[in-house]
């Protein structure tokens, strides 16, 4: 236990002071048991401005922050490709890591980060590694998890998730030269907007065994990455899944249907409705003598306690408490970030190769395609100053 731990305080550094970094700093500065000992950004004026505002020390290189600030833990909020090298450098120094989503751009990089963590953990068994999947704290998703894990739906047969409420304007994409490029961001809606949805899918239903993906590149925007995706999943237990997302639809829909032998659950418009079957539809189908009969079902609106703490600060608070010795689990462990990435990469690999793929798939094949896209890219995306980006507008339930 370091001196800071012994005093009940964790010294934290923040790397990446863009839009999401601003969100993190807004709660970090008010957290108990946290001392922000440094902020870091390659744009010196950003680091200087943050440091002045929050009365801490600016750094312009994450290694300087790691080696000179005396920090215990770091929150990583840099562009996607940089997650991996920054985290690996932190683990090499025994620094606890809370990483923004996605864990990495592709599976191979994610595995490098996880390997670095596992290696560091052998030297420092209490090393903490979390990922910022704050949507797991949302009460409606918590209730869905409870219904599924409790077996209220019985054997699941179909999941259909239409989430087209990720509408983005061209001004959003033009707000940064790195946005929506293969070299700068590594992908589009699956890499930027939907890691939370992909994590939620695997958290609730597990990973599929087969994926068929259909991704449209720059269909609604002047970008070189995907802005509309439809995916079909097959699970080992027979359940099928549909995943439909886009940044080009307004008004959008966020509707999650979960069908099982005991009925259908629909989550939409901040309400969970359970059409509960009186008996198993499998049993009814096998035993009924009436060819056009239906299982009697009852409309039930599931009560959900929405007056609970949610969001980034809850994930960070659990992370800090774990560093201080709490046995309460993290909201999401960093290693779990691999699963959503498997879905994202798998969908794109299927789309690029125009064939259904098995999970796990050849991660080298996807990385090779990605590197070729970067190498061959001649896309020049215009960038514009003045776009108004309020990150709270992007936190989509």
From TrEMBL:
Residues 10-122 form the Gfo/Idh/MocA-like oxidoreductase N-terminal domain. InterPro entries: Gfo/Idh/MocA-like_OxRdtase_N, Gfo/Idh/MocA_Oxidoreductase, GFO_IDH_MocA-like_dom, NAD(P)-bd_dom_sf. Residues 141-265 form the GFO/IDH/MocA-like oxidoreductase domain. It comes from the Bacteria. GO terms for molecular function: nucleotide binding. Gene3D superfamilies: Dihydrodipicolinate Reductase, domain 2 (3.30.360.10), NAD(P)-binding Rossmann-like Domain (3.40.50.720). PANTHER family: D-GLUCOSIDE 3-DEHYDROGENASE, UDP-N-ACETYL-2-AMINO-2-DEOXY-D-GLUCURONATE OXIDASE. This is Predicted dehydrogenase. The lineage of its organism: Bacteria, Bacillati, Bacillota, Bacilli, Bacillales.
């Amino acid at each position: 236990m370091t001196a800071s731990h012994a005093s009940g305080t964790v010294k934290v550094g923040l790397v990446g002071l863009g839009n999401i970094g601003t969100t993190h700093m807004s709660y970090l500065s008010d957290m108990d048991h946290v001392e922000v000992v440094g902020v870091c950004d390659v744009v010196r004026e950003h680091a200087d401005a943050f440091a002045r505002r929050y009365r801490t020390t600016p750094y312009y290189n994450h290694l300087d922050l790691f080696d000179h600030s005396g920090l215990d833990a770091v929150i990583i909020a840099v562009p996607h490709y940089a997650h991996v090298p920054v985290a690996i450098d932190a683990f090499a120094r025994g620094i606890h890591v809370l990483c923004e989503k996605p864990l990495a751009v592709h599976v191979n990089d994610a595995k490098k980060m996880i390997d670095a963590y596992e290696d560091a953990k052998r030297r420092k068994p209490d090393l903490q590694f979390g990922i910022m999947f704050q949507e797991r704290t949302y009460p409606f998703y918590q209730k869905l998890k409870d219904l599924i894990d409790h077996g209220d739906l019985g054997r699941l047969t179909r999941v259909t998730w239409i989430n087209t409420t990720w509408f983005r304007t061209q001004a959003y994409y033009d707000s940064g030269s790195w946005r929506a490029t293969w070299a700068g961001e590594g992908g589009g809606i699956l890499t930027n907007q939907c890691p939370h949805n992909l994590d939620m899918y695997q958290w609730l239903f597990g990973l599929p065994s087969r994926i068929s993906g259909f991704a449209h590149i720059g269909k609604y925007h002047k970008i070189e990455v995907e802005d509309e995706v439809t995916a079909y999943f097959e699970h080992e237990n027979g359940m099928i899944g549909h995943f439909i997302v886009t940044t080009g639809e307004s008004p959008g829909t966020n509707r999650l249907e979960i069908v099982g032998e005991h009925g259908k659950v629909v989550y939409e418009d901040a309400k969970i409705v359970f059409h509960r079957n009186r008996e198993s539809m499998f049993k009814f189908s096998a035993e009924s003598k009436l060819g056009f009969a239906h299982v009697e079902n009852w409309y039930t609106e599931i009560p959900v306690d929405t007056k609970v703490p949610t969001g980034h600060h809850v994930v960070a608070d659990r992370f800090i408490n774990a560093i201080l010795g709490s046995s309460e689990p993290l909201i999401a462990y960093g290693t779990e970030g691999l699963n959503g990435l498997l879905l994202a990469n798998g969908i794109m690999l299927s789309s690029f190769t125009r064939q259904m793929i098995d999970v796990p798939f050849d991660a080298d094949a996807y990385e090779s395609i990605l590197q070729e896209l970067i190498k061959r890219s001649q896309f020049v995306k215009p960038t514009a100053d003045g776009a108004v980006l309020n990150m709270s507008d992007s936190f989509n339930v």
